[in-house]
């Protein structure tokens, strides 16, 4: 058993005690092949929630600041995360993400780039589209709705995969990436549950 599987099991036990789970659309996540899992981000618990309740390992891009302490860098790396410098165009992170997708792995992304509280609007970053286009992978929109209070409901909604075949062979432009990202985030917003 890998450390990732062990940690995911512990988190699920914790969640079963702390919250009530309402999960719909799990069948939309491909069981194999590269896929970008694009989720909203309202709480620090969202990455944990997404990883625990997806039935395949998820790799995450995490801000490089989380890797500054040796213990947290070791923990995050053992859980499949890798760093990105959010202040620049981090080519190393970009290449890592594309390689993972081409190798058939699942990549978890919070397109807003940072936590966005309920009622706030924040432009989603176009990275989700770039990774999917270059990694030749579909995007599964995910919405988590919860206040994460004791025994409250954690609603997880998985949308149908968005395939980008219509863009194949075209030059990747900023407009194209923004169009794809907006399409994905619109699906995420549609799945939101009032809590």
Give the low-pLDDT segments. 119-123
Q: Indicate the proportion of strand residues.
A: 15-25%
Structural category is: alpha/beta
H/E element sequence: HEEHEHEHEHEEH
**Average pLDDT for all residues:** 88
- The CATH class name reads Alpha Beta
The CATH H-level homologous superfamily: Glycerol-3-phosphate (1)-acyltransferase
Plain-language structure description:
This is 1-acyl-sn-glycerol-3-phosphate acyltransferase. The longest helix has 17 residues, at 174-190. The protein has one domain (3-190): 3-Layer(aba) Sandwich (Glycerol-3-phosphate (1)-acyltransferase). The protein has helices at 3-18, 46-52, 70-78, 91-102, 127-135, 174-190; strands spanning 20-24, 35-39, 58-63, 81-84, 106-110, 139-145, 153-158. It has a seven-stranded mixed beta sheet, with helices on both faces. The protein is globular, with a radius of gyration of 16 Å. Helix 1 (3-18) packs across helix 2 and helix 4 (91-102) packs across helix 5. Helix content is 36%, strand content 19%. By secondary structure, the chain is an alpha/beta fold. It contains six helices and seven strands, in the order αββαβαβαβαββα.
């Amino acid at each position: 058993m890998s450390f990732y599987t062990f940690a995911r099991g512990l988190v699920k036990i914790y969640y079963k005690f702390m919250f009530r789970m309402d999960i719909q659309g799990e069948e939309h996540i491909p069981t194999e092949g590269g896929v970008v899992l694009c989720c909203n981000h309202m709480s620090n618990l969202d990455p944990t929630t997404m990883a625990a309740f997806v039935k395949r390992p998820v790799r995450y891009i995490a801000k490089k600041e989380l890797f500054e302490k040796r213990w947290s860098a070791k923990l995050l790396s053992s859980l499949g995360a890798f760093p990105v410098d959010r202040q620049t165009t981090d080519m190393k992170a970009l290449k890592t993400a594309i390689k993972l997708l081409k190798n058939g792995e699942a990549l978890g992304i919070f397109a807003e780039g940072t936590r966005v509280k309920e009622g706030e609007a924040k432009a989603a970053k176009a990275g989700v589209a770039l990774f999917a286009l270059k990694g030749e992978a579909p995007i599964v929109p995910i919405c988590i709705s919860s206040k994460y209070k004791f025994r409250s409901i954690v609603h997880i909604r998985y949308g149908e995969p968005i395939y980008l075949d219509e863009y194949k062979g075209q030059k990747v432009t900023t407009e194209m990436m923004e169009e794809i990202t907006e399409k994905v985030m619109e699906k995420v917003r549609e799945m939101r549950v009032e809590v």
